[in-house]
Design a protein that fits this description.
By secondary structure, the protein is of the alpha/beta class. The protein has eleven helices and twelve strands. It binds adenosine-5'-triphosphate and magnesium ion.
Length: 319
């Protein structure tokens, strides 16, 4: 097991009150596995990634309780100094807005080189070779030429790869990829996904892939956790969840994936809005949008039920 997250709670303490962005989630990721976190905007996907990285905006963002066990160490208990050493060496994250993580005034070689120097104890004359190696790992063509270029000289897709190269430069055990918001076109997206498979094959890295798109989950993830309003409401192997989704929210999300073979080209979308994380409803947090809700759903939060070895669901309808 590379990562085990246990009952993680992360909140933002704002003037308006406590925002429970992550409200008690548990999941694990194994070596060479890709675990997807899927859900609508604002459900807590990025905050989950930032919690694992211990990169929450301080002082408002805080891990309130829970465990994040990475390679046997509980990251929640690590000092800032230890965490800094761990970050980049054992775990790294490709942020959702990768363009902001490149500095316009430094060359690609400088920026990937800096990451290599920070995390690997290499003699100076070997740094460039390592930079070329990691650019190659990200399938960046002509890396010897690219490393002398500046970010503005690269296409969006290529910049994305450079950010990936920085994240992989230390050969982490766990890579968290937060899907970019600036929509990549379909071909670039397909290449981007293929790239992760390739990297995983070469390095055995465990991956958490964050997305709002079940179509992407189908293409890259081995298992998936469906997140709704700060909670994981269903976990299952990707194959099983498509074949037989259990939670009404999962069913709705899968229905909203565009299907090329369907004649009807209107896209299904889920009615209503997720609840405010500052003021959650008493019962099931999906209940106000659920078409099959029972009386109990308004009153009590459903417990997480393990329905088979690899699957669990939090829904009063599922036993
Ligand atoms: N700095 C912050 N201060 C207060 N609340 C925040 C802050 N950052 C995030 N939140 C809240 O935490 C919740 C989860 O945010 P998060 O960024 O994890 O969503 P997400 O699932 O990544 O959404 P998206 O798909 O849009 O990226 C949201 O309700 C958001 O408003
Ligand atoms: Mg996000």
């Amino acid at each position: 097991m590379v990562l085990q997250v246990e009952d993680l709670h992360t909140s933002f303490f704002t003037k308006m009150g406590e925002v429970k962005a992550v409200d008690g989630i548990s999941f694990h990721v194994r070596e060479r596995e890709t675990f997807g976190i899927v859900g609508e905007s604002g459900c807590g996907k990025s905050v989950t990634g930032l919690s694992i990285m211990r990169l929450l905006p301080e002082p408002s963002g805080q891990i309130v309780s829970g465990k994040i066990i990475l390679e046997g160490k509980n990251l929640v208990e690590l000092s800032k100094k230890h965490m800094r050493a761990y970050r980049g060496k054992v775990v790294s994250m490709i942020l959702q807005d990768p363009m902001t993580s490149l500095n316009p005034v430094y060359t690609i070689g400088d920026q990937v080189g800096e990451a290599v120097r920070m995390h690997q104890d290499l003699p100076e004359n070997m740094v460039e070779a390592e930079v070329i190696d990691v650019l190659r790992l990200l399938r960046i063509p002509a890396p010897e030429v690219r490393l002398k270029e500046y970010p503005f000289q690269l296409s969006g897709g290529m910049k994305q790869r450079v950010v990936g190269a920085i994240a992989m430069s230390c050969r982490p055990r766990l890579l968290i990829a937060d899907e970019p918001t600036t929509a990549l076109d379909a071909t670039i997206q397909a290449q981007y996904i293929a790239l992760f498979e390739d990297i995983q094959e070469k390095t055995n890295v465990a991956i958490i892939f964050i997305t709002h798109d079940f179509g992407v989950v189908a293409r890259i993830c081995d298992r998936v956790g469906v997140m709704y309003a700060g909670k994981i409401i269903e976990t299952a192997p990707t194959r099983d969840i498509f074949k037989n989704p259990k939670h009404p929210y999962t069913i709705a999300l899968i229905k909203s994936v565009p299907q090329l073979d369907k004649k009807d080209d209107r896209l299904f979308s889920i009615e209503g809005q997720p609840p405010s994380m500052m003021n959650l409803p008493k019962g099931c947090r999906f209940c106000p949008r659920c078409h099959v809700a029972l009386d109990i759903c308004k009153e009590q939060e459903p417990p997480e039920v393990k329905i088979s070895e690899n699957r669990s669901v939090s829904c009063w309808r599922v036993k």
